[in-house]
Amino acid sequence: MADEREVLVAGEPVLLHAERALFWPRARTLVIADLHLGKADHFRRAGIALPVGGTSHDLERLDALLELTGAERLLVLGDLLHGEIPEAPWLARWYAFRNRWASLLVDVVAGNHDRVLRRHPERAASMGLTLHAPYVHEAPFLFVHAAEDAPVGGEGYVLAGHLHPVLRLPGLPRLPVFRFADVGILPAFTTFAGGMPFDPVRDERVFVCAPGALVEMPVA
Q1: Domain ranges of the chain
Q2: N or C: which end of the chain has fewer CB within 10 A?
């Protein structure tokens, strides 16, 4: 089983990675959704004991994907953040990441958790981000955070995040998936995310991000 798979989406070749990312070769763009930077810190500040290091782990995975793909741009389909931007260790780790990838363009389609970036665009600039709302249209795709954010009658195949879709394989816990039907839904990139179980629909393509492997599930 491979940890990546080339598929056609809206007639365009893309690579799906088991590490929950989509690479669009023609645009040299790595696409992820729902990074949720600072989520564990947010819960710890609320008095919920959680281990540290979640952001570091997610950024290490992102480092590896950027190295592997040679991407020149990172496109985040919303919820780059989980909440406010306190002076917390995760923020320093993000700045270190941006320093490592200083020439990388980082575009963010603002999600429901990115309110602070919309209210304070100077914070987005200080983090090395270009913020977009409510969508980015680059044929043949229409990139949004939630599928319902796509304009009615808008041109382009919708690629979204937000839902954190998951399925269970025999003998394994629930795992994140890519879903491609009338719209495409990416899995949450962060490993610290809940998931929304679903029932695949007819003719949908579903790819499960298993440990070290990307598995296409048969759908009747």
Answers
A1: 4-217
A2: C
